[in-house]
DNA sequence: CAGGATCCGCCGCGATACTG
DNA sequence: CAGTATCGCGGCGGATCCTG
C-alpha cells in the first residue's frame, strides 16, 4: 500500500528518489530509531518523545505502517495494549539509521567549535 | 549557521533527532546523490531533475549550503557560471546515501510483487 | 491506555514573470 | 545562465476534546 506518484520521480536516474517520502516525516527517523532498539507500547514510545502530540505520533505510526516498515500488534484487553515493532522491511532500514547516527555525531561535533 | 531549535529535540535520547531537518527537504537526498557523483553546474543539476522548479532548486541548494554540506563556487563571467560540489562535511554524508540506496532497491523490489 | 474527530495556522512547494 | 520576486494553495504539524 504505497503512496504512489507524488510528482513522478520514477524516471529519475537516482535510486534514492523514491523513498524520500518515507523519511520526510518530521519524526520518522526518530521513531524508527527507538523501535530498532526494542518493541514499544504506544505510551512508552510517546514518553521517549514527549514533544510530539499523541495525535501526530499516531499519524506517523500509521504512515510507517502503511509503508510496511513497522508492525502494529493489538492486544484485545482492557485497558488496551498496542505494541509497535519493526517488520522485516523495517529492519532493513537499520543500516540507514546507523549511517545517520554516525553522520549526526560528526556533524554536531564539527558544529560547536 | 545552524537552524537551531525547532521544538528542542536536543534533550531527546536519540542521536538522529538533530539532523532530521537536514534531510526533510523534498529533494535533499537526490541533490546530494547527484553531487556525490560529480561537481555540477546549476543547469546540469536542474536537467537531471527536471520536475523541480528553478526557484525551488535554488532554495534547497541554499539550505544545504547553509548547513555546510555543499559548496557554491561562482565564476564571475558572462554568461554566469556556478558550480556546486560537496564539502568535506557533505562527503561524510555519502555513507548515508549508500545505505539509502541499498534500502531503496530492496524496498522497491519487495513492493512490486 | 490508545486512540479517533475536528479545527486551524503556517510554510513547504510549485507556477510564473522578471533581471544582471 | 543562474538566479531573484511574488503569489498562492494544500497539507503537514499541532492543540484540544472526546471515546471504548
Can you give a write-up of this model?
Two copies of one chain form a homodimer. The first copy, chain A, has helices at 20-23, 28-37, 42-48, 54-66, 88-91, 94-111, and strands at 40-41, 70-75, 81-86. By secondary structure, chain A is an alpha+beta fold. The model of chain A is unreliable at 1-6 (pLDDT under 50). Chain A has one domain (25-111): Winged helix-like DNA-binding domain superfamily/Winged helix DNA-binding domain (Arc Repressor Mutant, subunit A, Orthogonal Bundle). Chain A is built from six helices and three strands. In chain A, strands 1-3-2 form a three-stranded antiparallel sheet. Chains A and B meet through α2 and α6 of A and α2 and α6 of B. Chain A binds a DNA duplex (20 and 20 nucleotides) through α3 and α4. Chains A, B: GO terms for molecular function: DNA binding.
Q: What is the structure about, briefly put?
A:
The structure is a homodimer. Chain A has helices spanning about 20-25, 30-35, 40-50, 55-65, 90, 95-110, and strands at about 40, 70-75, 80-85.
Keywords:
homodimer; 113 residues; Arc Repressor Mutant, subunit A; three-stranded antiparallel beta sheet; 12% strand; globular; DNA-binding
Number of domains of chain A: 1
- Number of distinct beta strands of chain A: 3
CATH level 1 name of chain A? Mainly Alpha
Taking all Cα atoms into account, the compactness measure Rg of chain A is 16 Å
| First and last CA, distance of chain A | 45 Å
Q: Report on the biggest sheet of chain A.
A: 3 strands, antiparallel
H and E order of chain A:
HHEHHEEHH
Q: What is the third-level CATH name, the topology of chain A?
A: Arc Repressor Mutant, subunit A
Enumerate the spans of chain A where pLDDT stays under 50 for 5 or more consecutive residues: 1-6
Average pLDDT figure of chain A: 90
CATH architecture of chain A, please?
Orthogonal Bundle
Count of helices of chain A? 6
Residue share in β-strands of chain A: 5-15%
- Strand line-up in the sheet with most strands of chain A: 1-3-2
Biggest interface found = A-B, 46 and 46 residues
**CA-based shape of chain A:** globular
Instruction: Write out the CATH superfamily name of chain A.
Output: Winged helix-like DNA-binding domain superfamily/Winged helix DNA-binding domain
Amino acid at each position: 500500500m504505497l503512496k504512489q506518484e507524488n510528482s513522478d520521480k520514477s524516471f529519475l536516474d537516482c535510486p534514492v528518489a523514491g523513498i524520500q517520502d518515507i523519511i520526510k516525516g518530521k519524526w520518522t527517523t526518530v521513531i524508527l530509531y527507538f523501535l530498532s532498539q526494542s518493541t514499544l507500547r504506544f505510551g512508552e514510545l510517546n514518553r521517549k518523545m514527549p514533544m510530539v502530540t499523541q495525535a501526530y505520533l499516531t499519524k506517523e505510526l500509521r504512515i510507517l505502517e502503511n509503508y510496511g516498515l513497522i508492525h502494529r500488534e493489538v492486544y484485545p484487553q482492557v485497558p488496551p495494549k498496542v505494541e509497535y515493532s519493526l517488520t522485516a522491511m523495517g529492519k532493513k532500514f537499520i543500516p540507514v539509521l546507523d549511517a545517520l547516527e554516525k553522520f549526526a555525531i560528526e556533524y554536531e561535533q564539527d558544529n560547536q567549535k
